Amino acid sequence: MAGTRDGGDPPGADPAVAASRDALAVVFREEGSRLTASVMRVLGDFDAAEEVVQDALLAAWQQWPVEGVPQRPAAWLWTVARRRAVDVLRRDLRHREKLALLAWPAEQPSEPEVDDDRLRLVFTCCHPALAPEVRVALTLRTVCGLSTAEIASGFMVSEAAIVQRLTRARRKIAAAGVPYRVPADDELGERLRDVLAVIYLLFNEGYLCNAADRPQRHDLSHDADWLAGLLVRLMPTEPEALGLLALIRLHRARAAARFDARGRLVLLRDQDRGQWNRAQIAAAADLRCCAAHRHR
Amino acid sequence: MKYVLPFCGTDEDAAAFEALTPEQLRLRYAHVGAWCAEHRSKIGPSNQLQAPDTATSVRFGPDGPPVVTDGPFVEGKEAIGGYAEIEVADLDEALRMAKSWPGRGTVEIRPVLTRR
């Protein structure tokens, strides 16, 4: 499944600490975006939702190495986030009114509900009322859970520039009334194309750079792969999403052969095909076939 | 959410409007009328404005008295030809309305500042 990473047993001086940090890294991406999506629906406020989720993840980062990774990490995070959200609401005058009306679910929302929330989040982040580069940054931050430093390194721009883009985006979402929902059927096709364009832009940005040349650079093509996989899970009947995932995986299967030892680009006809990942190519071809069958 | 939709157009848009035959003009107004009727429950105060050259602007500088000039405040290519205040659920609904506007030019969607 896209996005899941192998936890494994990491080597290290303190295996307990390392194991829990590793567990956190694994749940971070999956659970971070789920949590953001659910909290966002309850609070209806981008800024506040992000703050709450950051607090919950920070608490996990500090407590899991000491107390051990909980049996149900997602439920643990939800409980902390819920508590923090109520604090935020109490603190902020604007939200006091909402607090009284608000019935926070004690349990983490069920899987289908969370998936709905995440899809809403994706469509909000990729809304056409936001500038394209803003959509990309916001999606990376909010859906993929990347830090502003990671986004900045991926695009080779300053972190301050990313922070500014995100701040402006959140302000516009709140001020202009950008909705938090999946578009109506008659608009879905057009808006889905906007989402796919964001993922494709992200993939190109990551894929066209020579990672060996700049080892510090965050690999955006990996994020694009994860996002396309997420979209396929959330909208399993959309052939366009499947097609994009297949395209990304096909390209990534050949990644090892794309640059020579000196970091120069090797054209397709000159590539060492022994370095291509055959299993990945076969899997991507299967995806492509699925997409073709579903095409309307 | 409350928004104001300023309907803007360039000189070319204005010239094209002037060049409409009486029959075309009647049709255009009929379409605009139908649009207004369709969205009646969501439309507040709205008006078509007189041509931009009828405007007078009062501009405040960093200091000194304001300067009164002949003409609209923006010296750009586009001028506001009319406006409508609308009350809708969110930006998507506003976008849907703006996209179905039967006139030409550009429709801006500007959220109204509400006191919390």
Write up this protein:
- The complex is a heterodimer of chains A (296) and B (116).
- Chain A is globular and about 65 Å long.
- The N terminus of chain A is likely disordered.
- Chain A has 12 helices and no strands.
- Helix content of chain A is 68%, strand content 0%.
- With 296 residues, chain A is mainly α.
- Chain A has a domain of 88 residues: RNA polymerase sigma factor, region 2, helix turn helix motif (Rna Polymerase Sigma Factor, Chain: A, Orthogonal Bundle), CATH 1.10.1740.10.
- Chain B is an alpha+beta fold and 116 residues long.
- In chain B, strands 1, 2, 5, 6 and 7 form a 5-stranded antiparallel β-sheet that branches. In chain B, strands 3-4 form a two-stranded antiparallel sheet.
- The relative contact order of chain B is 0.33.
- The mean pLDDT of chain B is 90.
- The interface between A and B is small, with 11 and 12 residues.
Please, how many helices of chain A?
A: 12
Return residue spans of chain A where pLDDT drops below 50 for at least 5 consecutive residues.
1-12
* Terminal Cα span of chain A: 25 Å
- Stretches of chain B where pLDDT falls below 50 for ≥5 residues? none
How far apart, in Å, are the first and last alpha carbons of chain B? 13 Å
- CATH architecture call of the domain at 14-101 in chain A: Orthogonal Bundle
Strand content of chain B: 25-35%
- Rg of chain A, rounded, reads 20 Å
